[in-house]
Amino acid sequence: MSAQKHLVNDPATLVVDSLKGLVALNPYIKFDEAQRGECFLFFQIPFLLYALSPGVQWTGRVEIEQTDVSVIYRTPTSPHVAILSGGGSGHEPAHAGFVGEGFLDAAVCGNVFASPNVAQIRRGIHHVTGEEGALLVVKNYTGDALHFGLAAEQHKSAGLPGDVRVVMVGDDVAVGREQGAIVGRRGLAGTILVYKIAAALSSTGASLDSVESIAKYISTRLATLGVGLEHCHVPGTRSSEAHLGPEEVELGMGIHNEPGTSRISLPTVSKLIDTMLSKITDTTDPDRSFVPFNGKGDEVVLMVNCLGGISELEMGGITQEAISWLKDKNIKVKRVFSGTYMTSLNMPGFSLTLLLLPKEGEEYGAEEILKLLDAPANAPGWRWTSGKEPGEMSEKEIHVEVKKGEEVIVAPENSEEFLAAIIRACKSLIEAEPELTKQDQIAGDGDAGLTLEAGAKGVLKAIEEGKLKGENVVEDIGVIAEVVEEEMGGTSGALYSIFFAGLGTSLRSSKTTTTSPTLWAQAAEEALKTLYKYTRARPPSRTLVDPLETFITSLSTSSLSKAAEAALESAEKTKELVAKAGRGAYVNQEELKKRMVPDPGAWGVWRIVDGLRGYQV
User: Hey, what domains does the chain have and what are their CATH numbers?
Assistant: First the structure.
C-alpha cells in the first residue's frame, strides 16, 4: 500500500508552496502567482463565431478575475522559439522542474492531477513569447488538449506577437487503437524527451516550423509502458484500501492514479522487464503497434522513469535489466536516461520509454537527434547524462597476488564434528532469518536477518566448494573471516570478520598442532580483545557483544552447552536494556522497551552458539 502520510501545511496550498520552494532553489526562474491585469480574450459567443467563421475578427480588453496563476518561467537570454509545457501538478519534477536554459521557457501548473485553466496558460504564453513564436508541448489528456489549445487560439486571434502552436504527445502503448480510438494515446514520460529535443533545436535559432516539425516527428517514435506495485495517494484525500494484493503488480499504469490495463503476479525484475519491453517493441499486434520497430538493428534511446516511490537502489537494477534485454535482442541502446522525470506523486512504480531513432535515409538523422539530446541543459529536473552509449561491464578480472604467511597446521580434535558444528551454526542462522528481520524492523533498519543469512550461506558455499575443509582450523577460520566480510558487509560483517581474524591469529600463535576446549576458550578471549580494539561497545550495551562476551567468559569454566545457555540469558536481557551502541542507540528507547524485543545482533550470536552445541532449546 502506498504511503498515505504527507508533510504539508495545507493540501489546498501545496502546489503554490512547492513552486515557491523551486524558485527559492533556482534564482534563474520566476513565479507568477495570483496576478490581476489586462489581456485580450474571447467571450464564449464571439469565440464560437470565430471558430465557425474564421474571417470574423473580435478582440476586447477586459480585466481578468483574480485567480491562482501558477506559472514558472525564465527570461530568455536570446530570441528563440519559446517552448512551454504544463498540466496538472503531482508529476514533479515535470513540469516546472524542467524550466531552464536549453529546456522549457515556461511551465503552467494546475492543481494536483488537474489541468491548468486557460487564463493561466495565456499568462505563461505572454511571459515568454516573442516574434519567433512559441510551441506548447502537451501530454495528450482531454483537459490539457482543450485548455492549451484554446489558449493558443485565443493568443493568435488576439493579434499578439508570435505564432503559437500546440503539439500533443501520446506515447502510451498500454491501450490499443480500438479502445483509444477517440482519445488517442496518453502522454507519459516520453513527453520529456520531446521538449528536450525541441528546446535544444530552438536554442540554435531554428524557426517555429522546424521546431514544431521535429517535435511531431519525435512524438511518433515514442513508446512508453508503466507498471505499479500500488496506486499513489493524493494529499488531502481520505485513506484508501490497497488496490492490489501483496503479490500483484499492475501493468499499463498512467500518471493520474487511474487503474492499469492488466494485473499480473509479482515477478522478478528480469521477467517484468521482459514482459514490458516485449509489449513495447511488439509489432505483430496491429492494434497495439504504434512505433515501427524492426527488431534486429534498431537503435533506441531508453528512458527508465521512477513514478515516485521506487528506491534508487531498485532503479539501478531495473535500468541494467532493461539495457541487457535490449542488447540480447540486438537492439542498440545509444543513450540511456534513468531517474525521476515524471511521477505520479508517490506511486511505487516505474515506466520504460523507448525512442526509436531513425535509420539512414529518413527525414532526420540519428546523430542529429542524439546531438540535440546531448545538448547542455540547466534545469533542476534534468539529471546528469553521459552523452555516450551505456558502458560495458568489464569482462576481465583484475587479479591481485597476495602472499601467504607461514603455514601453520592446527588440526581439530575431530574434523567431521568440527565441520558439522559450523554447518549447524549456519543453518541455525538461516532458519532464524524471519525472527531476526522482524526484530530489526522494530529495533534497527530491518536488514539484520538478511545480513546474517547471507554470511551463513556464504560459509556453507565455501564448504561445498572445498574451500573450508576441516583439516586446518587456522586456514578454515581465515576462510570464514573472508566470507563474512565479503557476503555480509556493513557493521556486522566487519565485526564478525575482525573477531574471526583475531581467532585465527590466536590459534596460529598457540604453537599447538591440535585443538582442545581450553585452546578454543583462550583463542576466543584473545579474539574478543582484538574486537574491542575497534568497537566501543561493552556489556551491557544491547549489542552483539553482550552475549558474545558472556559466552566466551563462560567457555573457560564450563561446557559449550552451558556457555550457550549463558549466551541465551544474556541475549534475552537485551530486551530490557537501553541501547548504548549500534543502530538501536538512535531509536526511541521507551518505545523499544515497550516492544520487548531482543537486540537482533545479540539474538544472532545466540543462534550461532546454539547451532554450534548441536541442539535447540
Answer: 1-33+68-394 (3.40.50.10440), 415-613 (1.25.40.340)
